[in-house]
Amino acid sequence: MDTANATGRADELVQDLTAVVRTGVEVDDPGAMLEDRGDDQRLRREALAGVRAALAVEGLVSEAALRGVEVAVADAVWLGASLADLSAVTGRSRQAARKRWPALGGIYRRRKWLANHVDDTFYMVRLLLDRSDGLAPGEPEQFRTAVRELREALTRSEADFDSESDFDDNAARSAGRPPAARWRALDELVDVHLRRVIALAGEPANPDAGFALHGAGGVLGYYHHATTGTGEQE
Questions:
Q1: Which of 30, 74, 137, 185 would you label with 131, given CA atoms 20 to 30 Å apart?
Q2: What is the pLDDT of residues 19-54, one digit of tens each?
Q3: pLDDT digit string, tens, across residues 162-218
Q4: Domain-wise residue ranges, the chain
Q5: How far apart are CA 186 and CA 193, in angstroms?
């Protein structure tokens, strides 16, 4: 890592942000002093306003850095990193990482389950979509919307996990989509879109639809059981 260059850029960013914040900062006039020379009173007031602006920027930058670390850590776990991996990078113990980022356990369990059931999930979701006309929902319009959203989510995830092509992380980043986004999207496919379709499905009108609904419900139940446990990362 080019520490000197990074430090220089950080200083420039802080200076630019301080200048932006400074435009909206005012402080009380500290008053004149006998030893003032020239425009010292005005300059002193501006300097004190600069102090207030710098302190505000310190808080903003610290909060942004903490959010950045949290996102980076979550992305790493979505991509398969364990607490042991994070410990090696951060120099903190697993217990310290678990305490600082309590959501990581849930992310780890979801990612682990999803990674082991990508193809099974796609198969059952596709089967449910293919048999969705054989379901009798109580709220047909909401159900049709949920089915359309599930179909769109499946199409995106199937493209993300196409075994015939490597995931192009450079293209994803260029499109503003970090590599871990495909795992988050797959999780949303199951936990949001599939869950909603099943909740709205109503009773099956034929055995094929009933089989598809039962199978999709099994996938969701297995996912829920595996991802809401208390098991800890290795």
A1: 185
A2: 999 888 888 888 888 887 888 888 898 889 999 999
A3: 865 555 555 555 556 788 999 999 999 999 999 999 999 999 999 999 999 999 999
A4: 3-78, 109-227
A5: 10
Please determine, for residue 222, whether its predicted confidence score (pLDDT) is greater than 50.
yes
CA distances from 220 to 113, 120, 187, 223 (A): 11, 11, 11, 5
Rg (CA), the chain: 27
Length of the chain: 234
The first and second tokens of residue 38, run together, are 């020239």
Looking up tokens 């829920």 gives: 224
Distance set, CA 138 to CA 142, 148, 198, 203 (Å):
9, 17, 12, 9
Burial of 157 (0-12, 13-18, 19+ CB in 10 A): buried
CA dihedral 59, 63, 64, 65 (to 10 degrees): 100
Give me the amino acid identity at 121: T
Per-residue pLDDT, 231: 45
Number of neighbouring beta carbons within 10 Å of residue 229: 12
Q: Are 215 and 207 in contact (CB under 8 A)?
A: no
Q: Residue 56: name the closest of 12, 24, 18, 23 by CA.
A: 18
Say if residues 176 and 147 touch (Cβ distance below 8 Å).
no
pTM of the model: 0.79
Residue 20 backbone phi and psi in degrees, to 5 = -65, -45
